[in-house]
TrEMBL record:
Taxonomic classification: unclassified sequences, environmental samples
Entry similarity comment: Belongs to the NifH/BchL/ChlL family.
A UniProt-annotated Pfam family: Fer4_NifH
Keyword terms, alphabetized: ATP-binding, Iron, Iron-sulfur, Metal-binding, Nucleotide-binding
Native organism: uncultured prokaryote
This protein's name: ChlL/BchL
Length: 107
């Protein structure tokens, strides 16, 4: 969660998309990107309730929106904190965008 960096629960990409009727052109960076501790900009993808859908779909929609907003061009480093214990491959989608990446795993 981004709560540790922002100090509050930020709106998720999915909630924002739903509120705007999935009209990507009506969403601006300030609607989904929030400045956190130390100047770290944060985005919260959100997702379906546990056991009720594919979180990978949410990752795909998040990546699509961030591309639309040109967010990937604005930063030198982008970190994705994703679940690693799922069967859906969508969580790995952001890895396709980077010429270089580092995967960190923990127990």
């Amino acid at each position: 969660s981004t709560f540790a960096l922002t100090g509050f629960l930020i709106p998720t990409i999915i909630d924002t998309l739903e509120a705007k009727g999935y009209h990507y052109e009506d969403i601006y960076p300030e609607d989904v990107i929030y400045r956190g501790y130390g100047g770290v900009d944060c985005v919260e993808a959100g997702g379906p309730p546990a056991g009720a859908g594919c979180g990978g779909y949410v990752v795909g929609e998040t990546v699509k929106l961030l591309k639309e907003l040109n967010a990937f061009d604005e930063y030198d480093v982008i970190l994705f904190d994703v679940l690693g214990d799922v069967v859906c491959g969508g969580f790995a989608a952001p890895l396709n965008l980077a010429p270089i990446y580092c995967v960190i795993v923990t127990d």
